Amino acid sequence: MKQLDARVADPIDHQRRLLISDLSIVLVAVIWGSTYVVMQVVGHSLPVMAFLALRFLCSLPVIAVMGWRSLRTLTAHEVRSGAVFGTLLFGVLACETAGVRFTSAANAGFLITVSVVLIPLFEWVLFRRRYHALVYVATLCGLAGCGLLSLAHGFRPQLGDLIILAAALIRGFQITLFGRGSTRGAPQSLVNITFVEFVMVSLLAGLSSAAFETGVPGRIAGLGGSTWLLIVYLGVLGTSFAFFAQLRSARIGGSARVGIILSTEPVFAAVFAVLLAGESLGPVQIAGGLLIVGAAFVGRLMTGREAKPARRAEVSGSTRPGG
User: Where would you find the membrane-spanning parts of this chain (predicted)?
Assistant: First the structure.
């Protein structure tokens, strides 16, 4: 009620904050769009798990400093929730980081967005929640776009496309569970859960690297300054900044508005792929990408209108750290 009164009392100030909020989310979409090219570049120097571990180790100090007030009240329930979602997030990012090495950055950016259009299907199958028929039409359009992208280079899908689709499936499942959990039980701090998630990804990636990857210490020691800069860029801006920007913007404009703006991420991924990686987009890829982006936009818009307010201390939704 106080927030509503503030908007009525000073609508100009609210519009200014809303504009700044929207611009910050556009910046997040731009950063996330660039991560696929960045992962390809860093992939030449580091194996998958070592790269993930370093990326999230870079993000943890920022989360700890920015969220220290909330972290002082960390509960056992938040630790358990963070551990579960962190394990799922590790699966998403491991598949993304590996998959982008075997497909184009543009395809990766488009295909990971399929997770958005899969959420209504997960909610229908798991929780019997139904949306407007247009949402399911959008889902079918998104899957059709996925098929066009996967078959853009012939009738045999690329290995990387299949790995990215696996990441999209896990991500859609993660977001569905997170949204369901945010409406039940005692309120939890999104900052605390996310911090535990990031710690979990760091631990799982570090342990996996130690167990399955060889020569990692030497390769880390041999990293150049530009590679370290890219890793820090992904950790600080692509992970920590993206999280806090989403959290602040969702409080100002609502999570549905944030989600709709973030649906532009694959467009920026395609732009960076063409400008920085020298990739080219054929007519089939463009058609598939447009179908996926359009489906994600419609799905975000329709599900956002139908969603009920969550009983949480903070905003509910996904905190995917991009790329």
Answer: 20-42, 48-71, 83-102, 108-127, 134-153, 159-178, 190-212, 227-247, 259-278, 284-302
Distance CA 290, CA 264 (A): 11
Name the DSSP class of 184: S
276 touches 112 (CB < 8 A)? no
Q: What is the pTM of this model?
A: 0.85
Q: For every residue of 202-237, which 3-state class applies, written as one string?
A: HHHHHHHHHHHCCCHHHHHHCCCHHHHHHHHHHHHH
Helix ranges (DSSP H) in 239-282: 242-253, 255-262, 265-275
For helices 283-306 and 105-112, angle between their N-to-C axes, nearest 10 degrees: 30
Residue in this structure with the two tokens 């960390």, named with its chain if needed: 74
CB-CB contact of 273 with 279 (8 Å): yes
- Residue 268 corresponds to which tokens in the numbers above? 């920026």
Q: How far apart are CA 182 and CA 170, in angstroms?
A: 18
E strand segments, 102-244: none
**Alpha carbons 249 and 278: distance in angstroms, whole number:** 33
Tokens 């039409």 sit on residue? 137
Coil, strand or helix at 313:
coil
Poorest-confidence range of 11-15, 223-227, 257-261, 301-305? Answer: 301-305
For the segment 60-112, what is each residue's pLDDT rounded down to a tens digit?
Answer: 999 999 999 999 999 999 999 999 999 999 999 999 999 999 998 999 999 99
